[in-house]
């Protein structure tokens, strides 16, 4: 069980999907201390006035679940926040936009006919909610971060490349495959919509972390910068996008969130 008494030193966990995102946060960390646990590296310290633990989720649901469990069991975190990139699925979700998850599901989970398709066995549901209060703060932080980037005008590379970027809230789907073909994307979107799940973005970790946090009673929220439209162009300039846009957004959003906590 998680700690029932939370002190001011109880950390906030910040999970990053990619090393580029984490690197920028580590550089800002005050009094950094690196620890190894469960075959992973964790960074403890102070960030924007908050005690934090930084970790890479690694790729895929199992790896992300292991990391989330380690953060709770080993470090006793009070809340967990995830930043990363995702493929846009919603009709109005564009590359360069940001999606704050209201809930999560596994798009590749199918235990039918024993359970309805997408339903997680023994939970009686397919979707796991993010924490409402933390998600609201994260949404506001994302909005302020993008407003700040837009205010910089031509000084901001992200603004120059994606001047109309905006923040969305909605369902995010996770699966253990990189959705990168237009045909696959359309088929997945249609299958999910047919089951009543209107998905805004697709990635590979969020639903697993949400399930772990539900089990432990730890508030969880996640934000994803849209790097592609989960179609045939999903691989184009991916690394450049992460370096120049997503990592910058992640640092700005985390800063705004930690200041608000």
Radius of gyration: 17 Å
From the spread of the alpha carbons, the general shape counts as globular
* Tally of individual domains: 1
Say which CATH homologous superfamily is assigned: Nucleoside phosphorylase domain
Biggest sheet descriptor: 5 strands, mixed, barrel
Tell me the name of the CATH class. Alpha Beta
Beta-strand content bin: 25-35%
* Tally of alpha and pi helices: 7
Helix/strand layout:
Blueprint: E1 12-16, H1 19-28, E2 30-37, E3 40-47, E4 50-56, H2 61-75, E5 79-88, E6 98-106, E7 128-129, H3 132-151, H4 157-161, E8 167-174, H5 182-194, E9 199-203, H6 206-216, E10 220-228, H7 238-260
Parallel strand pairs: 1-4, 1-5, 5-10, 6-8, 8-9
Antiparallel strand pairs: 2-3, 3-4, 5-9, 6-7, 6-10
